[in-house]
Design goal:
A hairpin with a 5-residue loop joins strand 12 and strand 13. The chain is an alpha+beta fold. The longest helix is centred in the first third of the chain and has 36 residues. The strands form five sheets. The protein has a six-stranded antiparallel barrel. A six-stranded antiparallel beta barrel has the order 9-10-11-14-13-12. Strands 16, 17, 18, 19, 20 and 21 form a six-stranded antiparallel sheet that branches. The chain folds into three domains: 91 residues, Thrombin, subunit H; 105 residues, Trypsin-like serine proteases (Thrombin, subunit H); 96 residues, PDZ domain (Pdz3 Domain). The N and C termini lie far apart (120 Å).
Length: 377
């Protein structure tokens, strides 16, 4: 009898234990389910004070954001044009040296009355003509009203009104890692207005260009991994807001995924002058200078902490007449501190021939002031 009771009690205890574990497991499962059910995918964005703010991004929001970007890019593609130096270039580049022989490239409309920004090597130099094809397929003769070979940029004009045009961004505030889109005609008109995307890989890059037996340097470029091919030259590099931050210019042929664009802020002063006055007479100082980062490639013995290094002075230029010398370092123009050649270039673009500027020069371990009256380029 005792044995029977003992076994009965043991079985009862086992049943109670199993039921308790089952109940606890069920409760825990329900609690965990409710807890994880309330969790969303979160991103954290800093506010102006650096405090992390939680934002919940749903699938619908992602789709809406993607649609907005597509709308923005589509609007800009309407402003991208095809450019050729040959009037009847045909429609194909599938032949030996096709892109170069046909002279095909890209450009972007920057005003409703027909101003178009591109590369000088695409349109040709100032006073030359090129042939510009709009999105509707119509081709017009464009007159190159301004160009600068040192930055490989040009502005052309066609006699057409009420054109769609792209807005200019601010290239001084771009950051490595930001998303960008390159638009252009990569290998001819069959693939016109091709859009590629990527990120800003680096800023303030310098590229050495070897042509006709001599080397030159393009400075302060934006580097991107967005696909850029020869026909993309002159097309816009835009941010997700659809604003131009650069003009696609150079691609390193020996490397994949490395392209370059000229920052838009360099040419902004000229564009603004054309918008206001319909003309621009370029002032000139008559020098070519290198950023301090370039100096080690030229002469390891030269060391400068700030400013830009004068490497060349044109004969009979304002700089030559005022005693500037090769090897001088310009640290300021008027009250603007200089760290890049593009800083000086952009500032000179805001001036007119005959204007005077004050240069702060570092020479022989001392600083001197030189007043220069700008000439005509």
């Amino acid at each position: 009898m005792y044995k029977y009771k003992k076994n009965g009690n043991s079985k009862l205890k086992n049943i109670i234990i199993i039921m308790t574990i089952t109940i606890l497991t069920s409760i825990l499962t329900i609690l965990l389910y409710r807890m994880y059910e309330g969790i969303n995918i979160n991103t954290y964005e800093p506010d102006s004070n650096g405090t992390a703010i939680r934002t919940i991004q749903t699938v619908q929001e992602v789709k809406e954001q993607s649609k907005q970007i597509a709308d923005v890019v589509e609007n800009v593609t309407q402003c991208v044009v095809g450019i050729s130096k040959i009037k009847n270039a045909g429609t194909t580049v599938f032949l030996k040296d096709g892109t170069s022989s046909l002279g095909l490239g890209s450009g972007v409309i920057i005003s409703e009355n027909g101003y178009i920004l591109s590369n000088e090597h695409v349109t040709g130099s100032k006073y030359s003509n090129c042939y510009i094809t709009l999105e509707n397929g119509k081709t017009y003769t464009g007159s190159v009203v301004w160009s600068d070979s040192t930055v490989d940029l040009s502005i052309s004009k066609i006699n057409v009104k009420n054109l769609p045009y792209a807005n200019l961004g601010d290239s001084d505030n771009v950051r490595v890692g930001e998303i960008v889109y390159a638009i252009g005609n990569p290998i001819g008109y069959q693939f016109q207005r091709t859009v590629t995307s990527g990120i800003i890989s680096a800023i303030n890059r310098t590229v050495r260009i070897d042509e006709n037996g001599k080397s030159t340097y393009m400075e302060d470029l934006i580097q991107t991994d967005a696909g850029i091919n020869p026909g993309n030259s002159g097309g816009p590099l835009i941010n997700p807001d659809g604003k131009i931050i650069g003009i696609n210019s150079v691609k390193i042929e020996s490397a994949e995924g490395i392209g370059f664009a000229v920052p838009i802020n360099i040419v902004k002063p000229i564009i603004e002058r054309y918008m206001k006055e319909e003309k621009f007479e370029e002032a000139s100082l008559g020098i070519f200078a290198y950023d301090k980062e370039i100096i080690p490639y030229i002469d390891e013995k030269i060391e400068i902490q700030r400013g830009i290094y004068i490497a060349q002075i044109s004969l009979d230029s304002p700089a030559a007449k005022t005693g500037l010398k090769v090897g001088d370092v310009i640290t300021k123009i008027d009250n603007l501190e200089l760290s890049k050649m593009s800083d000086l270039r952009s500032y000179i673009y805001t001036k007119s021939p005959g204007d005077e500027v004050n240069l702060s020069i570092y020479r022989n371990k001392r600083e001197i002031q030189i007043r220069v009256k700008l000439g005509v380029k």
